[in-house]
């Protein structure tokens, strides 16, 4: 069964490459995290996993309040391990 994706209009705002920087680390087993994201409708805390990170930011695979999957680069201080 395919996982429904967060619609483009409701996706979290994502940092760009100049913001998240390098080097990018990609773990074999992404750790579970809780993170704050910013969407068109405001801020919300979501559960997810850290699929990549740099010294400044984390690439998050998250589940929104409707059970849909999304991805975003967010600042590292917006993320905590679960």
UniProtKB/TrEMBL annotation:
Residues 1-31 are annotated as: Disordered. It comes from the Bacteria. This is Uncharacterized protein.
